[in-house]
Design brief:
The chain is built from ten helices and 38 strands. The strands form nine sheets. The protein has an eight-stranded mixed sheet, sandwiched between helices. Strands 2-3-4-5 form a four-stranded antiparallel sheet, with no helix packed on it. Helix 4 packs across helix 5. The mean pLDDT is 95.
């Protein structure tokens, strides 16, 4: 079929902003309950709540009715918000009050934990049913002070008992097979869990605990008991998160040494990268750019990869025998819950994260590319414009948007992301950048951002888009940049310190540092120590790096999008930058959303934000996207 020629960015597309959200219901945490499969599902059309579902006779059943919302606020990012008892009752942390509830499927939940006293709050995460109790990480907020411990919550509602504490942060509570000991991961400010953690083990009778391995420069994750005297753990002591066996006396041996990560930054509690199989082998996920599933034999150290037919993003769910649940996806297949048979290798889709998938002819391919910047190599994924009905005008190069992930320790891999297709199907290219500081390439790559936030991330993103322009793939005069949270910081830092981009969109981005570290939540309150430097020694860097102090170097339009209930990056960050834009007379728009937090979850917000972003690009980059409401920009 002959394709019609239209300017890039103005191609009609069947993918609407409403399609991105209305058909999307991201799935997490698949597990087996009897002969059924249950999972958690985010519902944008239900005010962004998370419910628990199962499938019966081809029909998805909701097991937690509205308005209940299984979502933990421990560390604000949560994780491990629900589990299931042996008799099929759901135990979950309710988002609205953060109490732990229990319910039969479809029944009204009953609280297991008491309501906190006035002026305080108590949160629970990483819930794990063990016998007649629920192990959990408890986070207590009392008059500005935050403390955490690992607790046992009685399923009969008789109370909550503290088991261990002694550090600012705790994760991965694991009872020994004989029930006499508990293992967990601990760390303190100013470290983040990808910087340095400790494996600790306590005697439950005496409460005495010992450090087994770990420290300031070793990140230890996911302990799992082998027997009563030894455990498997993930450690990056070699420069890569690898799996080790550890004795309680500190004896340690690598199970399999590899230049790949069998782990990732612990942003959400409960993440797992390996699972013990019935025959003593380990089912593992390792990452170098993309994910690979494999079976590791601890006796021989051999690693046998499993062919998943191109799936490149993989996380482990529940297992029964040789049946394993995976959350997995790729650039051509949407992320969703899948059932793997380890005996046959067969993979069956249980529940897609998308109700409807755009026609494959409108989906970009997602090509991993390594750019050589002036200082170092930069990994990225390139999504070129693609539409079966339209092509650009002769001699015209497409505009490109650089997507900058958050974290900044996050990682991106080729993915069927409807947001990318929303742009590429209209003739706008996307490059998703794993700048220095990203995970998935070992500790050295991750540590490139130490003391260099606002420098290395900007340089690497600029290197990626310049690489596209130098290769004749992108119009160097029509480059945009988009990112959220820490990615929003990189957006604002790039716009105020370089002239490469014609415009940028910051979703709840950090704009200033001195007040940010005072206003943000406890989990990340000392994060900037490693990214910029500790206070007061680094106060000058805090001021010179902050984009809000560098608006004199900005000459292009900016779009700011912010949730007004965001406890991680408060609205004051976007508002300070907006005020600086007004003072300098720079065209911009500031979109503030009531009831939204760190990451937009409501359908109407997601639609408005994405259409506004597209209109913004059209106005600045010189095209008119059909059928998109015009965003009004403030102009002097």
């Amino acid at each position: 079929m002959t394709r019609a020629a239209l300017p890039f960015g103005s191609w009609p597309s069947p993918i609407s902003a409403a399609d991105l959200s209305a058909s999307g219901h991201p799935v997490e945490g698949g597990r087996f309950v009897g002969d059924e499969i249950w999972w958690a599902e985010l519902r944008p059309t239900e005010n962004g709540r998370t419910t628990v579902c199962r499938e019966r006779n081809g029909v998805v059943e909701v097991l937690l009715a509205e308005p209940f919302n299984a979502r933990s606020r421990v560390h604000e990012y949560g994780g491990g918000a629900w589990d299931v008892t042996a008799d099929g009752r759901i135990v979950f942390a309710e988002f609205s009050d953060q109490r732990v509830y229990i319910a039969q499927p479809g029944a009204t939940p009953v609280p297991l934990t008491s309501a906190p006293e006035a002026a305080s709050s108590v949160r629970y995460g990483e819930l794990s049913v063990v016998g007649g109790d629920v192990l959990a990480v408890r986070e207590t907020h009392d008059d500005g002070a935050v403390t955490r411990d690992i607790v046992s919550i009685a399923l009969d509602g008789s109370g909550v008992r503290s088991l261990v504490s002694g550090s600012n942060f705790l994760a991965y509570p694991r009872l020994s097979p004989d029930g006499s000991k508990i293992a967990w991961i601990a760390w303190d400010h100013p470290r983040m869990p990808w910087d340095g953690t400790e494996l600790r083990v306590a005697n439950l009778d005496t409460g005495d605990w010992t450090k087994v391995i770990g420290g300031d420069e070793e990140s230890v994750l996911q302990p799992e008991w082998i027997d009563d005297e030894s455990l498997y753990v993930v450690s990056d002591r070699s420069g890569w998160w690898n799996i080790y066996s550890v004795g309680l006396g500190g004896e340690i041996a690598a199970v399999h040494a590899a230049d790949a990560d069998f782990g990732a930054p612990l942003w959400q509690l409960g993440a797992r990268w390996y699972s013990l199989l019935d025959d003593g082998k380990l089912l593992t996920v390792r990452t170098f750019g993309t994910d690979t599933l494999a079976v590791l034999d601890p006796e021989t150290g051999t690693l046998d990869d499993i062919d998943l037919d191109g799936l490149t993003s993989i996380s482990l769910g529940g297992r029964v025998g040789t049946s394993v649940l995976l959350k997995a996806g790729s650039a051509q297949s949407p992320s969703g819950l899948r059932l793997l048979n380890l005996d046959t290798g067969a993979v069956e889709l249980v529940r897609s994260g998308l109700e409807t998938v755009p026609d494959e002819d409108y989906l970009p391919m997602g090509e991993p590319v390594t750019f050589q910047g002036p200082e170092r190599e930069v990994h990225a994924i390139v999504y070129a414009p693609r539409n079966p009905e339209y092509q650009g005008l002769d001699g015209e190069l497409p505009p490109y948007v650089a997507f900058v992930h958050g974290g900044p320790t996050a990682h991106v891999a080729p993915a069927l992301n409807p947001v990318f297709a929303y742009f590429t199907s209209r003739g706008i290219g996307v490059v998703d950048v794993n700048y220095g500081g990203s995970s998935g390439y070992g500790r050295e790559y991750r540590n490139r951002l130490r003391d260099q936030w606002g420098v290395v991330d900007v340089e690497d993103t600029v290197a990626a888009v310049n690489g596209l322009a130098d290769a004749g793939l992108a119009d160097p005069n029509r480059l945009a940049i988009e990112g959220g949270s820490a990615g929003g910081w990189t957006v604002l830092a790039a716009l105020t310190s370089s002239d490469v981009f014609a415009c940028g969109a910051s979703y709840y981005g950090v704009a200033e540092l001195e007040l940010f570290v005072a206003e943000t939540h406890d989990f990340e309150s000392r994060y900037i120590d490693g990214l910029i430097g500790p206070l007061p020694e680094a106060i000058d860097l805090y001021r010179t790096r902050a984009p809000v102090n560098n608006v004199d170097g900005l000459s292009c339009p900016v779009l700011l999008l912010q949730g007004l209930a965001d406890p991680i990056v408060p609205p004051s960050q976007a508002e300070r930058f907006r005020d600086a834009l007004v003072e300098k007379g720079i065209p911009h728009a500031y979109l503030a959303y009531e009831g939204e937090s760190h990451g937009f979850r409501k359908l109407e917000t997601q639609v408005n934000a994405r259409e506004s972003e597209l209109s913004f690009y059209g106005q600045v980059l010189g095209f008119t996207p059909p059928g998109i409401p015009t965003l009004e920009l403030w102009r002097p």
